[in-house]
């Protein structure tokens, strides 16, 4: 019998390996449980940190289970015509947007819209190109690190440090700053400690980004009622309709022909097309399930964080640290990066910046770190707990499914990982986020800037695939041509 | 000299500094008479083994695509990979290249995907694969040979 589609891999491994992996999985789970319980015992306010941690853990497990990766979504469409991952992401977008609308109506949303501008497209373009080179997006690289891929760890590291270098870079880069940005940044009257007119990124933020207007689709459409704004404007118009249309385009371009092959006799017009559309949505069960869990948990995450903020009487984690007597690493405003929802790149940049600070570099003279996000000790950075737990959750899922493998990259893979990671870091800072913070979390919360980032990311992915294909043609042609197929 | 060649020659000398790029990862070999016992299929003779363990997902997918395009009718390919993303994606690629997924075996260090080419060439409506260095016309003739015309 010939099977079509991917069945569950049949385990051919010994029981000894499986039981050892289960033991390791319990050890990882125990480690995070111990952190949660011991910190709670020290100070109950650490429950705020643990909330980030356990949502990160769920994200890691879901991402690994569904092999969920934005790079794969774009790359597989353009490179090999497989829509599996793009479909999974659109499912997650639809579900996250519905849960987000509920959370917004309940007054528990922690989301803040980004300004609308060309920067999103440019940032997405750079990020998208980089992620195809590395073979994983920002969240994908984290969960692949949990699977044991050291190449993915290199991506995470290069992405983190390249953000820091861009944020801190001044010198000759100042010559690339338009005079209008410098004048606008100077006019903001920012504290002298952040040197707003020195450094490309500072002037990009204060002289350009802050002059743009953040707006949600609900506001754009003029809804004054929160219910209508959240469900019709933000969820239906900004997320669900574009997702359904994109899925339709994917169906017609990449799926329909294969689905209808051999079904000419049974073709019943729209009913057959609808059946094909549904078949595309359910083609990969595990990707669809992962999309469902991710979408729902990302929405619940916002609800839980806002609930905890209300309960603890805070609006930012910086207040918690201050209350606990930890003042080091807070921004000038005594705040920390604390989005209250699924996010990836900024906390990693904070981790890299903390290392740079320890090496003697001053990171607090920038707007990004000094004024807005701070550079806390990684052990006291709640959002970084989420990233660490994401790696842990992925490791647990990989171990339980006997899919964990410690992989050291070749020099070639390492070079692509570092080079692509640098591009991803630059793209993430220019676009004010990655595939999660600037796309997934934004389009689902009614922020149209997310689609601009997505547009740039898709274009960058297309460029990356074309370049990689060209590269492989030249490097590998002999190898494949030599096959006697 | 076309533009592609010019660019390639220009960046060629930098390969010496681009230290990692000289390694060749993929181990591709054509084998005959390798017998494997596949669940639900029994003994199957594998014609080609493509070993992509340690390789990135994009390169794995692109090289599998090229191999599937070039395979003759009834060729059985064994594709080994430890990249989960590729292991998940490859079975979905097969219909586009007139191939059938036999089975995926999860082994200790990698997955082995077994694929059979059902018909030569590409499904109707898909462009035939262009052989490197061939014109479109030569390429069509080459594909005709595959189908025995």
Structural commentary:
The complex is a heterodimer of chains A (485) and B (149). Chain A is mainly α. Chain A is built from 20 helices and 1 strand. Chain A is globular and about 75 Å long. With 149 residues, chain B is of the alpha+beta class. Chain B has one domain: 2-Layer Sandwich (Translation Initiation Factor IF3). Helices cover 30% and strands 29% of the residues of chain B. In chain B, β4 and β5 (111-117) form a beta hairpin. In chain B, α2 runs parallel beside α3 (84-93). The longest helix of chain B has 14 residues, at 57-70. Chain B is globular. The chains are: A mainly alpha (485), B alpha+beta (149). Chains A and B meet through β1, α3, α18 and α20 of A and α2, α3 and β4 of B. β1 of chain A pairs parallel with β4 of chain B, so a sheet runs across the interface.
Q: What does the largest sheet of chain A look like?
A: none
Unreliable residue runs of chain A: 1-12
What structural class do the secondary elements of chain A suggest?
Answer: mainly alpha
> How much strand content do the residues of chain B show?
25-35%
Which runs of chain B of at least 5 residues are low in confidence (pLDDT < 50)?
13-25, 127-149
Helical content of chain A stands at: 55-70%
Helical run tally of chain B: 4
| SSE string of chain A, helices as H and strands as E | EHHHHHHHHHHHHHHHHHHHH
Give the SSE order of chain B as H and E letters: HEEHEHEEH
Oligomer: heterodimer
Could you say how many structural domains of chain B there are in total?
1
Describe the secondary-structure layout.
The complex is a heterodimer of chains A (485) and B (149).
Chain A: E1 10-11, H1 15-42, H2 47-65, H3 70-80, H4 84-105, H5 118-134, H6 138-146, H7 150-168, H8 179-187, H9 200-207, H10 217-220, H11 226-260, H12 270-281, H13 285-312, H14 317-324, H15 345-358, H16 367-373, H17 382-400, H18 411-430, H19 435-443, H20 449-481
Helix pairs in contact in A: 1-2, 1-17, 2-6, 2-13, 2-17, 3-4, 3-20, 4-11, 4-13, 5-18, 5-20, 6-7, 6-17, 7-15, 7-18, 8-9, 11-12, 19-20
Chain B: H1 3-11, E1 27-38, E2 42-51, H2 57-70, E3 76-81, H3 84-93, E4 99-106, E5 111-117, H4 136-147
Parallel strand pairs in B: 2-3
Antiparallel strand pairs in B: 1-2, 3-5, 4-5
């Amino acid at each position: 019998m010939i099977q079509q589609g991917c069945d569950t891999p049949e385990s051919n491994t010994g029981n000894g390996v499986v039981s050892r992996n289960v033991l390791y999985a319990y050890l990882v789970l125990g480690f995070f449980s111990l952190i949660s319980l011991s910190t709670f015992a020290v100070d109950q306010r650490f429950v705020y940190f643990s909330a980030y941690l356990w949502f990160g853990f769920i994200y890691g497990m879901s991402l690994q289970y569904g092999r969920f990766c934005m790079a794969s979504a774009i790359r597989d469409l353009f490179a090999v015509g497989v829509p599996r991952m793009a479909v999974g992401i659109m499912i997650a977008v639809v579900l996250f947007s519905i849960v987000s609308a509920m959370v917004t109506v309940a007054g528990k949303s922690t989301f803040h819209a980004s300004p609308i501008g060309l920067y999103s497209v440019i940032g997405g373009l750079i990020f998208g190109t980089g992620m195809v080179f590395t073979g994983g997006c920002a969240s994908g690289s984290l969960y692949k690190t949990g699977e044991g891929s050291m190449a993915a760890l290199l991506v995470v590291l290069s992405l983190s440090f390249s953000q820091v270098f861009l944020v801190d870079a001044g010198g000759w880069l100042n010559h690339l700053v338009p005079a209008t940005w410098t004048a606008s940044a100077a006019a903001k009257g920012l504290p002298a400690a952040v040197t707003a007119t020195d450094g490309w990124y500072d002037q990009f933020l204060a002289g350009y980004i802050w002059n743009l207007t953040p707006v949600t689709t609900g506001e754009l459409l003029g809804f004054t009622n929160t219910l209508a704004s959240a469900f019709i404007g933000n969820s239906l118009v900004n997320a669900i309709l574009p997702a359904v249309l994109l899925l339709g385009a994917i169906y017609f371009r990449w799926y329909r022909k294969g689905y209808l092959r051999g079904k000419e006799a049974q073709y019943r017009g729209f009913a057959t097309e609808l059946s094909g559309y549904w078949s595309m949505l359910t083609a990969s069960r595990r990707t669809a399930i992962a999309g469902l869990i991710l979408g729902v948990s990302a929405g619940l995450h916002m609800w839980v964080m806002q609930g905890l903020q209300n309960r603890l009487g805070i609006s930012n984690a910086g207040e918690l640290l201050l209350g606990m007597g930890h003042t080091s690493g807070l921004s000038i405003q005594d705040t920390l990066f604390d989005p209250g929802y699924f996010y990836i790149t900024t906390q990693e940049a904070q981790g890299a910046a903390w290392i740079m600070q320890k090496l003697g570099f001053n990171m607090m003279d920038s707007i990004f770190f000094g004024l807005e996000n701070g550079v806390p000790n990684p052990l006291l950075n709640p959002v970084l707990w989420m990233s660490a737990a994401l790696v842990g959750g992925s490791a647990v899922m990989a171990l339980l499914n006997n899919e964990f493998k410690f992989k050291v990259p070749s020099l070639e893979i390492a070079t692509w990982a570092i080079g692509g990671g640098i591009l991803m870091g630059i793209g993430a800072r220019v676009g004010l986020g990655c595939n999660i913070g600037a796309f997934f979390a934004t389009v689902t919360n009614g922020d149209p800037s997310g689609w601009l980032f997505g547009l740039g990311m898709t274009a960058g992915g297309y460029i990356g695939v074309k370049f990689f294909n060209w590269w492989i043609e030249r490097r590998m042609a002999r190898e494949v041509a030599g096959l006697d197929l | 000299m076309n533009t592609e060649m010019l660019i390639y020659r220009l960046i060629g000398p930098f390969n010496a500094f681009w230290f990692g790029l000289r390694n060749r990862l993929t181990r591709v070999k054509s084998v005959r008479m390798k017998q494997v016992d596949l669940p639900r299929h029994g003994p199957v003779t594998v014609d080609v083994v493509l070993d992509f363990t340690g390789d990135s997902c994009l390169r794995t997918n692109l090289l599998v695509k090229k191999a599937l395009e070039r395979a003759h009718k009834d060729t059985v390919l064994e594709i080994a990979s430890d990249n989960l993303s590729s292991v998940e994606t490859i079975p979905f690629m097969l219909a586009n290249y007139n191939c059938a997924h036999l089975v995926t075996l999860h082994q200790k260090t990698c997955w082995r995907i077994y694929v059979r080419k059902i018909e030569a060439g590409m499904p109707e409506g898909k462009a035939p694969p262009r052989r490197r260095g061939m014109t479109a016309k030569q390429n069509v003739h080459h594909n005709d040979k595959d189908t025995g015309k």
